[in-house]
């Protein structure tokens, strides 16, 4: 039985390390599926299983523990950045600016409450532990990793001799943090007497008024002002872009070009932006019903998948598909959203392009663009590791600020996050294919976060129960709840009262400002619309960046 004892207890044994991590992660993920009062803590249970194993003396070699923790964190934040990168900058447009301002206010108030409690308690809770409690209270794991990275920098500089186990504060504050976020959502509902049906109707009215979604129309040319004019001339007169994918002239269907002349009675199939539809109808003619499928036509309409890396980053107009192949592109589907096929639209791997033309021509275009699901499913590992490489280099750059004991570094959490956001948004300009399937991104992300949480839990487990039972554990819980609840009620009330934010959007804003999937899951259960998801994704990128950066800055500025 010596082999079994060694397998279970030797912290330097590879078999023991793999066994322990496998058990902690598997048990944590399974327990995370259990719901308490309709709320699930998800993969966070991995942290608590790790703490339990650490409490019973099951440990891992320190160097291996730190490697697993840091590598897991890098994987997690990089995949997050890659996912949110395309929407990071666009989230500031229109109503997104207000939403992000409110979310940033929540982050600042969280910090203000945390520092206020630190000074009010007069040193009873040390600053690093307050930061750990703050990270748990706002359910932000990368913030915890960033704070630990900052403490490691201070230790390396000789400013502190030992790195405090701030994961204890995180673990204590996290469960009530989840409850506090959902509690704030519910309380705001009762304070403002929210009518769900009314909010749903208002959201649907706004969502339907999408001026940029494609509009498909069958028009008959009956305005004498355009008789005998080329399509390009009509487009210039209209002052907006549109695509004529098919034309019925003299009982014959053909693919028109910009030089095609419109004549009275021609019937055309037009694709344009929703906001331009009325202008085009008034200029060309009324809508009519045309069953193109019943016409004796060799034309086909097919969705082609962009999978060749050479297509990545090219503008649609650069391909000259009409001149070279005699086809028209009417719209492009990206991540489930239909986009109008503007000539200036930049193609990305993973786009689905709707092509109209003869069977042979469409087949040739499909070959040019790739149209291979197998190729699309192949992982783009090069982009991931190039991004991690430059992320670590960028995170290691020191930025000196007056009054700080050591230069600020974005570290292993902030560096890869920033680089991933940039690659996700602008990678195509450097011929980097940033497309990954949602399942692949989620798999890497979950592996990363579970490795991180397991490592943090195992490392903190030896002192956790002693700290909670004999120390200030209950005080930490109280501090965490105040850090969670106060900012959400203040900003949530302002968002509703002053900015008139739709309640379902506000639910997503609150969940996103705390990067809290359980709160988003609750919001989605309450609402049948996609408003919570829209609110969540609008503020998530900025909030994640602020959480990671602020956790480090608090440590470096106030230690």
TrEMBL record:
GO terms for biological process: potassium ion transport. Pfam families: Asp-Al_Ex, TrkA_C. Keywords: Cell membrane, Membrane, Transmembrane, Transmembrane helix, Transport. GO terms for cellular component: plasma membrane. Residues 204-286, 287-371 form the RCK C-terminal domain. It comes from the Bacteria. InterPro entries: AAE_transporter, RCK_C, RCK_C_sf, YidE_YbjL. It is found in: Cell membrane. PROSITE patterns: RCK_C. The chain crosses the membrane at residues 13-32, 39-58, 70-89, 101-121, 172-192, 381-401, 407-428, 440-461, 473-494, 501-519, 539-558. Gene3D superfamilies: Regulator of K+ conductance, C-terminal domain (3.30.70.1450). The keyword Transport applies. GO terms for molecular function: monoatomic cation transmembrane transporter activity. It is a multi-pass membrane protein. The keyword ATP-binding does not apply. Belongs to the AAE transporter (TC 2.A.81) family. NCBIfam families: PRK03818.1, YidE_YbjL_dupl. This is Putative transport protein. It comes from Bacteroides luti.
């Amino acid at each position: 039985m010596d082999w079994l004892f060694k397998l279970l207890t030797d912290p330097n044994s590879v078999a023991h390390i793999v066994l322990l991590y496998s058990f902690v992660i598997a048990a944590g993920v399974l327990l995370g599926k259990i719901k308490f009062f309709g709320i699930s803590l998800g993969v966070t249970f991995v942290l608590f299983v790790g703490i339990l194993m650490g409490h019973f003396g099951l440990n891992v070699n320190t160097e291996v523990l730190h490697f697993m923790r840091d590598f897991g964190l890098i994987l997690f934040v990089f995949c997050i950045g890659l996912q949110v990168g395309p929407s990071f900058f666009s989230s500031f447009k229109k109503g997104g600016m207000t939403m992000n301002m409110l979310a940033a206010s929540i982050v600042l108030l969280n910090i203000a409450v945390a520092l206020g409690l630190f000074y009010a308690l007069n040193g009873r809770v040390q600053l690093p532990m307050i930061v750990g409690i703050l990270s748990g209270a706002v359910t932000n794991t990368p913030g915890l990793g960033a704070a630990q990275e900052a403490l490691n920098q201070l230790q390396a500089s000789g400013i502190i001799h030992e790195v405090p186990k701030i994961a204890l504060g995180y673990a204590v504050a996290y469960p009530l943090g989840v409850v506090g976020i959902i509690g704030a959502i519910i309380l705001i509902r009762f304070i403002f007497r929210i009518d769900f049906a009314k909010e749903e109707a208002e959201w649907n009215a706004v969502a339907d008024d999408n001026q940029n979604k494609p509009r498909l129309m069958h028009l008959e040319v009956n305005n004498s002002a355009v008789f005998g004019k080329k399509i390009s001339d009509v487009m210039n007169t209209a002052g907006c872009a549109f695509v004529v994918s098919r034309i019925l002239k003299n009982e014959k269907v053909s693919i028109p070009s910009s030089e095609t002349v419109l004549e009275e009675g021609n019937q055309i199939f037009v694709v344009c932006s929703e906001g331009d539809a009325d202008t085009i109808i008034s200029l060309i003619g009324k809508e009519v019903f045309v069953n193109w499928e019943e016409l004796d036509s060799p034309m086909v309409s097919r969705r082609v998948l962009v999978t060749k890396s050479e297509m990545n980053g090219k503008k649609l107009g650069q391909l000259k598909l009409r001149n070279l192949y005699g086809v028209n592109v009417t719209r492009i589907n990206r991540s489930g959203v239909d986009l109008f096929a503007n000539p200036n639209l930049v193609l990305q791997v993973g786009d689905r392009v709707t092509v109209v033309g003869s069977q042979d021509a469409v087949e040739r275009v499909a070959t040019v663009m790739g149209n291979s699901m197998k190729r699309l499913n192949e992982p783009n590992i090069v982009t991931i590791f190039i991004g991690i490489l430059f992320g670590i280099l960028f995170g290691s750059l020191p930025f000196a600020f007056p009054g700080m004991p050591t230069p600020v570094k974005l570290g292993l959490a902030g560096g890869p996050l920033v680089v991933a956001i940039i690659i996700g948004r602008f990678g195509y300009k450097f011929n980097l294919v940033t497309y990954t399937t949602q399942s692949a991104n989620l798999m890497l992300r979950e592996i990363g976060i579970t490795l991180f949480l397991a490592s943090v839990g195992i490392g903190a487990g030896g002192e956790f129960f002693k700290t909670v039972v004999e120390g200030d554990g209950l005080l930490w819980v109280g501090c965490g709840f105040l850090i969670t609840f106060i900012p959400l009620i203040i900003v949530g009330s302002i968002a509703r009262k002053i900015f008139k934010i739709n309640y379902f959007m506000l639910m997503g804003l609150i969940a996103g400002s705390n990067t809290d999937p359980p709160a988003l899951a609750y919001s989605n259960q309450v609402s049948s619309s996609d408003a919570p998801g829209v609110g969540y994704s609008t503020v998530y990128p900025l909030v994640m960046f602020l959480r990671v950066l602020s956790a480090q800055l608090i440590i470096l500025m106030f230690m």
